[in-house]
Amino acid sequence: MSEHSSEPEVQKGSSNNNLIFAVVVLILVAGVAAFILLKPEDKPVQVVEDIVAEEAPVVEYQEPEPEPAVTEPEPEPVVVDTAPERTPEPVPEVEPLPTLNESDEVVVARMDELLSDQVMSLMVTDDLIRRGVVYVDNIAKGKVALSHAPVERPKESFKVIEGDILTIDPNSYERYTPYVKLFTSLSAAQVIRMYDEYKPLINEAYAEIGYEGDAFTGTLEEAIDVLLDTPEPKGDMPLVRNSVTYQYAYSEWENLPDAQKQLLRMGPENMKKVKAALRNIKAKLEK
Questions:
Q1: What's the rounded Cα separation, in Å, for the pair 109 and 258?
Q2: Which of 39, 110, 208, 262 yields a CA-CA distance of 20 to 30 A from 129?
């Protein structure tokens, strides 16, 4: 009896060991399957209960809590700075030039804006542009075209001082002072501005006397050079009487071009002012 009673206990113990082994294998397989089938971010939280003999372990899975929805901030409206539209400034209209025959009124009115009444009273306003063109052309040749002078002739007479030698009375220089004021009252910039403004009419007048109109600027520069080359005496210049006129006693003065002798008659101070103005005009022309 003792032999039969012991056999079932051995079989029962073997059966329990097999069951425990099976449960362990099941747990491992379940763990591997969960690792492979579930995404990393969705790994479940495992709750493992104590293993009781002859019962399979219970593995519970908890659904992952949904992450709170992230609300993206609405994009702020883009503000584009737009400069206010600028109204284009109106371009001043340039009045067309008059014809050469009708230019006196316009040119004289333009000069009247810049010059005083006293200075304007010295000007010859008849055919002004043509007069000026012929006068400058003659000065470039060293001559003085009195009949085409753009200014009135001095009313005071030429005076001399008689003594051992004849010399010019310094008071005679004063009769040219108003003309020097007329010439120097305009800046070089104003002179060139007016020259450019009326250049088409000047060229037309220059063409009338047989030249190419666009060559007048070169003639004007030559006239300026003639006057700038006038020698400046350091003292009184003796004169000699020739009938009703006077001549310079020294040939170096008497043989000068008429345009330079005319400048000498203005006196040393007036001549310096005229030359200074001419140099400024020449510099503007060369630019």
A1: 32
A2: 262
Could you report the per-residue pLDDT of 12-62, keeping only the tens digit for each? 444 444 444 444 433 433 333 333 333 334 343 343 344 344 444 544 545
Side chain identity, residue 110: R
Please give the distance of CA 251 from its chain centroid, rounded to a whole number. Answer: 54
For 73-90, letters b (16+ CB in 10 Å) and e give: eeeeeeeeeeeeeeeeee
- Closest by CA position to 205, among listed 54, 76, 105, 101: 101
Alpha helices in 158-257 (DSSP H): 170-173, 177-184, 188-197, 199-208, 216-228, 251-254
pLDDT, tens digit (0-9, with 9 covering 90-100), for 70-104: 555 565 655 555 555 666 666 556 678 999 999 99
- How far is Cα of residue 52 from the mean position of the Cα atoms in its chain? 100
Question: Residue 49 is encoded by which pair of tokens?
Answer: 């209960």
DSSP assignment of 24-39, as one string? HHHHHHHHHHHHHHS-
